[in-house]
Design goal:
By secondary structure, the chain is mainly beta. About 5% of the residues lie in helices and about 40% in strands. It contains 6 helices and 26 strands. The chain has helices at about 195-200, 205-210, 255-260, 285-290, 355-360, 435-440; strands spanning about 35-40, 40-45, 50-55, 60-65, 75, 95, 100-110, 115-125, 130-140, 160, 180-185, 190-195, 215-220, 225-230, 240-245, 250-255, 270-280, 310, 330-335, 335-340, 350, 365, 380-405, 415-420, 425-435, 440-464. The chain is globular and about 70 Å long.
Length: about 475
């Protein structure tokens, strides 16, 4: 029995569930029926009566499902290219087939007239896999020498995997271990803690990062994995990437790693093609891959930009530093774990203002449910943390930015701060706001400005 509610408050009453006559035949195999339908003011792809994706006015996928009934995710673009190209934000779709197979195409024009982008999508259903989103894409260069070849990465749709179920509870995908998994050219499965900074700092040998043609790159979420399969007919060689800032996975051409300053420019008439398939792996398959897979031999033991220090850090270990812990959210930035100071336990985040000033940026960004997870259910939330200081002079602030709504809306970015002249015992720094319920994307940062050291503990996002 299922009762569905979407972005609404609905009361159900006098519901009766009675015994039905037993049917001896097996549950029928799911037969897909794909079609476009206008629903809740948007253009959705439906499978029967279940929405499996919608395409916004910019041509980007939202709420994209990999398995019937499973939580949705986001695909960046219907014409898959590296985000540096300046395509016009418009949707031009042509549907050529509906039913058991859905086929549609899209076109986009570069704002500067440098190129045209094309994407051909096919959606099918496999009972053993789920939905298979097949994309063949190409970019045609219209002007000599105006585009770096590096920008023409046409096997890269940018999968944002962190879209969690819209509940008031914290999604498990930010407290379970998260890995980037992929098939290497030697036929072995490789995996590493999902972290953009590991890759940028050459944590592995080049040969160990290349994705085998016909293989895949994926990211684990709530024990599932969402993967991009690199079709064998791709002309280029690719390696896998995972960015902490948007919790997204994507491919990058090998030249990105080998000739970062020598890309060259594309010529008029050049055509770049790519082909990928996007689908899910079951938790059982993920566990098998992690059991068989190998971590890079030369992963760093400790690095300032590690992905996965966890707040609070009640079960933090050094086994795999970037994914250990059991808490609500992970934070990226320059801080230390202090196992001698804590508000309710012996563990907190220690932040040195001198290190913040040296880095030239806010202290901490959360890698967790504050990114691309709306809409939340409650209409208002309290967001904040507790601060302790000893011989500190300055200000500790919790700031909000990067808020994105569907459609234009006037709003004030909420923030809270605490001025400290010397020392303070644990004080709450936070604010109440409605933006988690309304926003599609939002971001938080903890900023420490001044001289001395502060401790931060017990971060919360609480529905009111």
């Amino acid at each position: 029995v299922g009762l569905g509610v979407r972005e609404s408050r609905v009361a159900f009453g006098k519901i009766n569930v009675t015994t039905a006559t037993a049917k001896p035949e097996a549950v029928p195999v799911h037969k897909p029926d794909f079609h476009f339908r206008d629903w809740v003011g948007r253009r959705y792809i439906f499978d029967g009566d279940e929405p499996v994706a919608h395409i916004d006015e910019k041509g980007s996928f939202q709420e994209m499902k990999m398995v019937p009934g499973l939580m949705p995710m986001i695909c960046n673009d219907t014409v898959a290219t590296w985000g540096c190209l300046n395509f016009k934000e418009e949707r031009r779709l042509k549907v050529s087939q509906e039913g058991e197979t859905l086929a549609f195409s899209s076109e986009k024009d570069d704002k500067d007239g440098r190129c045209k982008g094309y994407g051909d999508w096919t959606l099918t259903y496999d009972p053993a896999v789920g939905y298979i989103w097949d994309l063949k894409t190409r970019v045609e260069v219209l002007v000599d020498g105006k585009i770096q070849k590096w920008n023409l990465n046409v096997a890269d749709p940018c999968i944002y995997q962190a879209v969690a179920p819209a509940t008031s509870k914290m999604p498990q995908c930010r407290s379970n271990p998260n890995y980037c998994i992929y098939l290497r050219t030697d036929g072995k499965y490789g995996y590493y803690p999902a972290n953009h900074q590991f890759k940028n700092n050459n944590f592995a040998k080049l040969a160990d990062l290349i994705v085998k043609k016909g293989g895949f790159l994926g990211t684990t979420v709530d024990d599932w994995a969402f993967v991009m399969e690199l079709a064998e007919d791709n002309e280029d060689t690719y390696w896998g990437d995972y960015c902490h800032w948007g919790l997204d996975q994507h491919f990058a051409p090998l030249s990105d790693l080998t000739n970062s300053n020598k890309f060259g420019t594309a010529a008029k008439g050049d055509v770049y093609k790519g082909h990928i398939r996007i689908h899910a792996l079951t938790p059982q398959r993920v566990q098998q891959i992690l059991k068989e897979g190998v971590l890079p031999d030369d992963k760093p033991a400790n690095h300032r930009e590690m992905f996965a220090n966890v707040e609070p850090v009640n079960s933090f270990t050094d086994v795999v530093q970037a994914v250990a812990g059991d808490s609500k959210t992970r934070w990226l930035g320059g801080y230390a774990i202090d196992n001698a100071v804590g508000r309710n336990d012996k563990s907190s985040m220690r932040i040195d203002a001198a290190e913040v000033k040296k880095a030239g940026m806010p202290t901490l960004d959360p890698v967790g449910p504050s990114y691309r997870t709306g809409p939340y259910l409650a209409e208002k939330y309290r967001i904040g943390f507790w601060v302790k200081a000893d011989a500190f002079k300055g200000k500790v602030a919790l700031k909000t930015d990067g808020i994105v709504f569907e459609g234009k809306r006037e709003y004030t970015e909420p923030e809270a701060s605490l001025e400290i002249a010397d020392k303070t015992d644990w004080k709450f720094v936070g604010f109440e706001t409605d933006f988690p319920h309304l926003a599609h994307i939002w971001k938080l940062t903890i900023d420490v400005q001044g001289e001395g050291v502060v401790w931060v503990d017990d971060f919360e996002i609480s529905p009111l």
